[in-house]
């Protein structure tokens, strides 16, 4: 095969760079509990660069490993990502969902992307600029979230795994009180 030179960069280098950037934006989440399997999420760094960078950084540091799905509402979404209080090996998960990371909160990066099945968004408190480490994956469409929460990605494989995540108590706003499913590992595809 002949190497084609484009300026000082070869076509092979360009192809490797494109592949690398694509795999740098695919998050692999290994889920365990009632749901077992791998969920692949296409991160949308062009839509929410600061939020995606945060998720990538926490994944690279292994901070999401072992974190539970602490709030799971049937027909709505599964929420996870509390790296402060949400590790499944904690004896007391009552505070899961109240924490974040040791990094500052992020300013909102709202877009026109609709909240449909498989969309991944960043959780936040009342302030639009309070997202930190927690995120949620949609079971179904929820148009009332459109433009209110930052969209960071979409499930491209493993939605069947997401759909099996243990549901929480409907009378407690979806809190999963006992044996919540959790993320065993969370890595970028390029890190595998």
Descriptive notes:
This protein is of the alpha+beta class and 192 residues long. The chain has one domain (27-191): Cyclophilin. Helices cover 16% and strands 26% of the residues. The chain has helices at residues 11-23, 49-60, 159-163; strands spanning 5-6, 9-10, 26-32, 37-43, 67-68, 71-73, 77-80, 119-122, 135-138, 151-157, 182-188. The strands form two sheets. It has a nine-stranded antiparallel beta sheet. The protein has a two-stranded antiparallel sheet with strand order 1-2. A hairpin with a 2-residue loop joins strand 1 and strand 2. The two termini are 28 Å apart.
CATH topology (fold) name: Cyclophilin
Number of strands: 11
Kindly report the name of the CATH homologous superfamily.
Cyclophilin-like
> Biggest sheet, strands in spatial order?
5-11-3-4-10-8-9-7-6
Helix/strand-derived category reads: alpha+beta
Number of domains: 1
Largest sheet: 9 strands, antiparallel
Which labels suit this protein?
192 residues, single chain, 11 strands, nine-stranded antiparallel β-sheet, disordered N terminus, 3 helices, alpha+beta, 16% helix, Cyclophilin
Summary of the model, kept short:
The protein is of the alpha+beta class. The protein contains three helices and eleven strands. The protein has one domain: Cyclophilin-like (Cyclophilin, Beta Barrel), CATH 2.40.100.
């Amino acid at each position: 095969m002949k190497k084609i030179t484009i300026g000082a960069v070869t076509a092979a280098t360009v192809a490797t760079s494109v592949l690398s950037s694509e795999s740098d934006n695919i998050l692999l989440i290994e889920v365990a509990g009632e749901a077992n399997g791998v969920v692949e999420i296409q991160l949308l760094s062009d839509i929410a660069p600061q939020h995606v960078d945060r998720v990538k950084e926490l994944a690279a540091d292994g901070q999401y490993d072992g974190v539970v799905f602490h709030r799971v509402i049937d027909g709505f979404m599964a929420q996870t990502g509390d790296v402060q209080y949400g590790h499944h090996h904690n004896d007391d998960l009552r505070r899961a969902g109240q924490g974040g990371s040791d990094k500052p909160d992020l300013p909102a990066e709202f877009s026109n992307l609709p909240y449909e099945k498989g969309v991944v968004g960043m959780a936040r408190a009342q302030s639009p600029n309070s997202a930190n480490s927690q995120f949620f994956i949609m079971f179904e469409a929820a148009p009332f979230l459109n433009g209110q929460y930052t969209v960071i990605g979409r499930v491209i494989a493993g939605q069947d795994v997401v759909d099996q995540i243990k549901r929480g108590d409907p009378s407690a706003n979806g809190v999963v009180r006992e044996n919540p499913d959790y993320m065993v590992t969370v890595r970028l595809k390029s890190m595998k």
